[in-house]
Amino acid sequence: MSGVATGALRVAKAALRSELRKRIASISHEELSRQSKLVTEKVLENSRFKSSHRVSLYLSIPEEIRVQTWGILEQMLEQDKECFVPKF
User: 25-78: per-residue pLDDT in tens?
Assistant: First the structure.
Protein backbone atom coordinates (compact mmCIF):
# COMPACT_ATOMS: atom_id res chain seq x y z
CA MET A 1 0.00 0.00 0.00
CA SER A 2 1.36 3.44 -0.86
CA GLY A 3 2.07 6.13 1.70
CA VAL A 4 -0.87 8.19 0.46
CA ALA A 5 -3.27 5.25 0.77
CA THR A 6 -1.93 4.38 4.23
CA GLY A 7 -2.42 7.99 5.35
CA ALA A 8 -5.96 8.08 4.00
CA LEU A 9 -6.72 4.81 5.76
CA ARG A 10 -5.45 6.21 9.08
CA VAL A 11 -7.62 9.31 8.69
CA ALA A 12 -10.68 7.18 7.86
CA LYS A 13 -10.06 4.91 10.87
CA ALA A 14 -9.68 7.91 13.19
CA ALA A 15 -12.96 9.37 11.93
CA LEU A 16 -14.73 6.03 12.40
CA ARG A 17 -13.37 5.64 15.95
CA SER A 18 -14.50 9.18 16.79
CA GLU A 19 -18.01 8.49 15.47
CA LEU A 20 -18.23 5.22 17.41
CA ARG A 21 -17.14 6.95 20.63
CA LYS A 22 -19.93 9.51 20.16
CA ARG A 23 -22.54 6.82 19.53
CA ILE A 24 -21.41 4.76 22.52
CA ALA A 25 -21.46 7.86 24.74
CA SER A 26 -25.10 8.44 23.77
CA ILE A 27 -26.25 5.02 25.06
CA SER A 28 -28.30 5.50 28.21
CA HIS A 29 -27.44 3.72 31.45
CA GLU A 30 -30.75 1.87 31.26
CA GLU A 31 -30.02 0.62 27.73
CA LEU A 32 -26.53 -0.47 28.71
CA SER A 33 -27.95 -2.39 31.67
CA ARG A 34 -30.60 -4.01 29.47
CA GLN A 35 -28.04 -5.09 26.88
CA SER A 36 -25.65 -6.31 29.56
CA LYS A 37 -28.38 -8.45 31.11
CA LEU A 38 -29.14 -10.03 27.72
CA VAL A 39 -25.47 -10.79 27.06
CA THR A 40 -25.04 -12.26 30.56
CA GLU A 41 -28.09 -14.52 30.09
CA LYS A 42 -26.82 -15.73 26.70
CA VAL A 43 -23.34 -16.48 28.05
CA LEU A 44 -24.66 -18.32 31.12
CA GLU A 45 -27.03 -20.40 28.96
CA ASN A 46 -24.33 -21.30 26.43
CA SER A 47 -23.45 -25.01 26.46
CA ARG A 48 -19.72 -24.33 26.02
CA PHE A 49 -19.73 -21.97 28.99
CA LYS A 50 -21.64 -24.49 31.08
CA SER A 51 -19.18 -27.29 30.29
CA SER A 52 -16.04 -25.16 30.70
CA HIS A 53 -13.91 -25.27 33.80
CA ARG A 54 -11.61 -22.42 32.74
CA VAL A 55 -12.87 -19.19 31.15
CA SER A 56 -11.21 -15.95 30.06
CA LEU A 57 -13.24 -12.82 30.76
CA TYR A 58 -12.68 -9.12 30.20
CA LEU A 59 -13.76 -7.14 33.25
CA SER A 60 -15.96 -4.12 32.70
CA ILE A 61 -14.62 -0.86 34.06
CA PRO A 62 -16.63 2.28 34.85
CA GLU A 63 -14.61 4.58 32.58
CA GLU A 64 -15.65 2.63 29.51
CA ILE A 65 -19.08 1.88 28.18
CA ARG A 66 -19.02 -1.85 27.70
CA VAL A 67 -21.09 -4.84 28.58
CA GLN A 68 -21.14 -5.17 32.35
CA THR A 69 -19.43 -8.50 33.05
CA TRP A 70 -19.64 -8.68 36.84
CA GLY A 71 -22.70 -10.97 36.73
CA ILE A 72 -20.81 -13.45 34.57
CA LEU A 73 -17.83 -13.31 36.93
CA GLU A 74 -20.04 -13.90 39.98
CA GLN A 75 -21.57 -16.99 38.37
CA MET A 76 -18.14 -18.29 37.39
CA LEU A 77 -16.92 -18.00 40.96
CA GLU A 78 -20.07 -19.63 42.34
CA GLN A 79 -19.55 -22.53 39.92
CA ASP A 80 -15.86 -22.86 40.89
CA LYS A 81 -14.69 -22.08 37.36
CA GLU A 82 -11.17 -20.76 36.91
CA CYS A 83 -11.22 -17.20 35.61
CA PHE A 84 -8.48 -15.70 33.46
CA VAL A 85 -8.45 -11.94 33.00
CA PRO A 86 -6.40 -10.71 30.04
CA LYS A 87 -3.78 -8.10 30.85
CA PHE A 88 -3.63 -5.21 28.43
Answer: 888 889 988 999 999 999 999 999 999 999 999 888 776 667 889 999 999 999
Contact 60, 70 (CB under 8 A): yes
- Who's near 73: CB < 8 A, 6+ residues apart? 57, 59, 83
73, 85 in Cβ contact below 8 A? no
* Burial class of 49 by CB neighbour count within 10 A (0 to 12, 13 to 18, 19+): middle
Instruction: Report whether 83 contacts 52 (CB < 8 A).
Output: no
Beta bridge pairs of residue 51: none
Q: What is the pTM of this model?
A: 0.71
Domain that holds residue 69: 1-84
Overall number of domains in the chain: 1
